[in-house]
Amino acid sequence: MNSNRDIKVLIAEDNYLVSEMIKGSLKDIGYTIVGEAVDGIEAVEMTGKLKPDVVLMDIEMPEQNGIEASQRIFDQCPTPIVVLTAYETPELVSQASAAGVGAYLIKPPNAQELERAITIARARFNDSITLRRLNNALKNRNEELDTFAHTVSHNLQHSIDLILGYTNILKNQARLPEELEHYLNMVIRTGHTMTNVIDELQLLTGVRTTEVTVKPVNMSRIVAKAQQRLAHLISDKQAKIHFPAAWPAAYGYEPWIEEVWVNYLSNGIKYGGCPPHLQLGATERSDGMVRFWVRDNGDGISAEKQARLFAPFNRLDEVQIRGQGLGLSVVGRIVEKLGGQVGVESENIPGQGSTFYFTLPGAPQHRPHADDFA
Q1: Rounded to an integer, what distance in angstroms lies between the CA atom of residue 109 and that of residue 70?
Q2: For the chain, what is the total number of helices (H) and then of strands (E)?
Q3: Average pLDDT over residues 96-103
Q4: Is 367 exposed, middle or buried (0-12, 13-18, 19+ CB in 10 A)?
């Protein structure tokens, strides 16, 4: 028991008899008691002044309860905490854990239970502090990377805009031989590709850092906007796109879902058949999710490549990489943040193509308003 003498304990308990009983048990097993608080506010103040090695915190106290006091202690003067409660519920355990509590005891605790809980709380506290330090370091690093990505993207886009501007002047005003004009067109196409990559990088950063509120979305309007953005590609490839008569209602965030459709549609057009034929649809599942999908008429994708298709920056040369190595990765991040999943199905049979899908939480059906079609 002598090893416990160096451990200083603060008791926060408004019931005098319970406090005296706990003091007696702590003294019996050798702990040093540095103070007693009778409410949550006093517990926070005494923790800051006395610097105990552990706090025994009652849940139900006047002025401020034990959960709130524990949270303030963890934020202001991090210290291992054991909460004392007359009853145990899953909600209480969850709240205590979120507040930084390392262990809890049902009153009245005996000496053995006290010693075990204090040991556990101190061990978990060290892990929590290490995790908090790592999380803060990661947060700071991510903020630095976001700032760097924004600056680099802005500077690169400015340079690309200049390149595209000068090349378009040459294309429109200079009388170049056919071979040189072919190379000039390649420069223009490459410039637009670089712009798309920059846009996807910025979108990826936004998806990771932005919190959005999901609500029922107008999928017909979203798909129409995506199709409009791809009008030039659809015309060039003479693509045929077939839509369902109606879409099931789902929760989401319209600007992000539009990007998902743009990626899926452009991939289906680029790597579908000649000419591409795309079938769009949606299926309401029994688990409350809605599965939206795009089926093309291309060559299909092997099972091995399907498993790697949504990996970030993964290049699948055999299938001409769908997108630029970013598109499907961004799609995966978007749908995951909206509470759904992405995937692809294919028998790898030429002409039967592939089905790319994503899921979203289903929403109650509602009558359309005029604003839905604005």
Answers
A1: 19
A2: 11, 12
A3: 78
A4: exposed
Rounded to whole angstroms, how far apart are CA atoms 135 and 315? 31
Cα three-residue angle 32-34-38, rounded to 5 degrees: 125
Q: Looking only at Cα atoms, what is the longest distance across the chain?
A: 99
User: In angstroms, what CA-CA distances link 303 with 176, 279, 308, 325, 350?
Assistant: 47, 22, 9, 18, 14
Residue 147 reports pLDDT greater than 50? yes
- Per the document, the length of the chain is 374
Token digits of residue 143: 């903020």
Closest CA to 262 of 328, 338, 179: 328
Residue identified by tokens 């599942």 is: 285
Answer whether 336's CB lies under 8 Å from 358's CB. Answer: no
Give pLDDT, residue 238.
94
Taking a C-beta distance cutoff of 8 angstroms, is the pair 14, 43 a contact?
no
Q: pLDDT tens, 179-234?
A: 888 888 888 888 877 776 677 666 666 666 678 888 999 999 999 999 998 998 89
DSSP β-bridge partners for residue 242: 279
Rounded Cα distance between 185 and 196, Å, is: 17
331/247 Cα distance (integer angstroms): 20
Q: What is the mean pLDDT of the chain?
A: 83
Report helix, strand or coil for 100. coil
The two tokens of residue 43 are 């517990």
DSSP strands (E only) in the chain: 8-12, 32-37, 54-58, 81-85, 103-106, 215-216, 240-242, 251-252, 277-284, 289-295, 342-346, 354-361
Distances in Å between the Cα of 231 and the Cα atoms of 165, 228, 249, 262 are 22, 5, 26, 11
Closest CA to 261 of 195, 338, 356, 341: 356
